[in-house]
Amino acid sequence: MSDYMHIVDGAPALLPLGKIVCVGRNYADHAKELNNPIPTEPVLFIKPSTALVTLDGPVVIPTAWGSCHFEAEMAILIGQPLSSCSERQAADAIAGIGIALDLTLRDLQAELKQKSLPWEKAKAFDGACPTSAFVTVPVDQLQSQQFQLRQNGQLKQDGNSVDMLTPVLPLLAYISQFFTLQPGDIVLTGTPAGVGPLALGDELQLSLSNKINLSTTIKEKP
User: Structurally, how many domains does the chain consist of?
Assistant: First the structure.
């Protein structure tokens, strides 16, 4: 994570690097593709700030622990503290949106699940959250954001935030009931269907509506 910093609308943001709160199974089609039940409330887990890396450069993945999967997600950057907040307060606290990868060591995750153990080793390793810069958008556009991931030119994930089981503002309010969201924290809002394994040398293209378009390559972690 050496040189990561939050960028909003093209400029460095005066926000610290915080935790990443991730939401599992927030798209019904993704829950189904992994044979998971559709949750009745958000499934939450956390990545530390050491998981943050920029999508401006190559994405490095560990290879010692089996398959590493991509999961593209819309990311929310928090600009104000949120604790047991209302949806109105949540709206006022959003500093920007971006696109991120929730990298997942799938073989290790399956092993941990089988043993009824937490997922952190499979989800929260160093570099497990490559993230784009952020852009500001009106609150009424939060649930109309299309995001895509192409792997070597082939469309793999094509999602729209309108399909979230728990939309952004209720989601932030829900999270804040359990732990405070601080300025500089990031919330990953869930991934649609189409997740899959990465291979060294892969070229990924990621986009968020007409606001963010970027490309990156996959390299082996030294």
Answer: 1
